[in-house]
Amino acid sequence: MSNPPDDIxxxxxxxxxAAPGEAERWTEVVAAGRALSTEPFASERTAVLEALSQELxxxxxxxxxxxxxxxxxxxxxxxxxxxxxxxxxxxxxKLLVPAxxxxxxxxxNVDTMFLYSWALSYLAGNANIVRLTTRSSxxxxxxxxxxxxxxxxxxxxxxxxxxxxxxxxxxMSARLSAGCDVRMVWGGDETVRRLRAVPLNPHAAExxxxxxxxxxxxxxxxxxxxxxxxxxxxAERMAADLAPFGQMACSxxxxxxxxxxxEKGRAFAADFxxxxxxxxxxxxxxxxxxxxxxxxxxxxxxxxxxxxSSLRHRPHTTTVVAAASGSAEPAETCGAxxxxxxxGATLEELAxxxxxxxxxxxxxxxxxxxxxxxxxxxxxxxxxxxxxIGRALDFGATWDGYNLWADLTRxxxxx
Length: 415
Prior knowledge:
The protein has 415 residues and is α/β, with parallel strands linked by helices. It has helices at residues 26-31, 43-58, 66-74, 77-91, 113-123, 138-154, 170-179, 189-196, 220-224, 228-242, 262-282, 289-305, 347-352, 368-381, 404-408, and strands at residues 13-18, 95-98, 101-105, 127-132, 161-166, 182-186, 205-209, 213-219, 253-259, 308-313, 318-322, 338-345, 358-364, 385-388, 398-399, 402-403, 409-412. It is 42% helix and 21% strand. The radius of gyration is 22 Å and the shape is globular. The relative contact order is 0.13.
C-alpha cells in the first residue's frame, strides 16, 4: 500500500503496476502530468508496446486466451504503424500535443479494456493514471504481471504511468479528477452517472462510454448460397465475436436478424445454431454450469412472456427464436452463449428498433448498397459501427462514434 495525501488518508488504494520508484511518488504524477508527457508516437513508447505484444504472445496462458491473443495482435508493430497513420491522418497538418495527464476509469466486464484505453493515450504522449476494477481474475492478474515486467525493463519510457485500484470512493476519484487533463470513463450507465457527479478539473475534458448493446444481420439468400465450409467459417467468425468476455463486451451481438422470408430464416437459424455450438465448444475449456443455468433462465423467461416461439439449449449455446422480429431483443442481455434469432426481418424493421444505447451491427451477405443504407439508418438512430461478422471486437481510435485522438490531444493554433 502507498500513502495517499492527507485529505484522502482514510481511502485505501493499491498500486498494481508502476515504473520503478513511481509508486512511492504517485502524487507527483497527478501534480506534474504535463511534465511527464512526450511527443505523440515517440519511438521509445512504441517500443514498449511492441515489447508488450511480444510478451503476450510468449506467455503460456495469454497466448491461448482469445482476449489476450487479440490484444497482442493489436499491439504488434504493423498495427502500431496503422495507428500512427490514422493519427497523422487525423492531425492533417495541425500541431497536436498530448492532453497531459489522462485519468482512465476502466470496466470490470472486459479485462483487457484498460490496456486498450491506456495504450492509445500512451501513444498520444500522455501521462496516465488507470483505475482498474477491484474484482480480480486470472486474465487480469496475468496482464498486470506482463505489464509490470515490460515496465521494469523500459527505463524512462515507463515513467508517468500508474495502474491502481480502489473501491467506490468519491474522495479518491475527486483527487485524481482534480489533477487530470482528460478523464476517460469506461463502464455501465451507473458508473458514468457516478463519475460525472465527481468534480472535474475545470480545464479538463471528459469522454464517457456507457452501457451499449449490439446485434447482427445476415441475408438469408447469401446464407443459402454458402457451401458447408462457408457456413462453418461464418459460425467460427460469430463465435469469435461471442466467446471472449462471456459475450458481455458492448460490441458482442445478442440478436441475429435474418433478412429475408421467415420460413427460410427458420431453417437457416437451426442450421447456423448447430454450427455455432461446435464453434463455441472449440473455444471453450469446458461447459460452464453457471452460464448454462443463466441461459436457461433467460430462455424460459422469454417463452413464458410469449416473446419466444421456440428455444434450443445446448452445452455451450442456447438458441431463442423470437415470436416476432420486433420482440427479438430482450430488455436485459444474457450473454454466456445465448443468441436470439429474429426471422423475416427487413433492414428498415431492424433499424426501427435501434436506440442510442446500440453500438455495433455485424453483418453478412448484404450488398454494398444495403450495408450503406443500414449504416445511414443505424447512424441516425444512434448506432456507431457496421462491420463484418467476426470483427465485432476490433478496437480502434474511433469508438462509439468519437475520435479518441481528439480527446487525448490538444490542437495548438500556429499562425
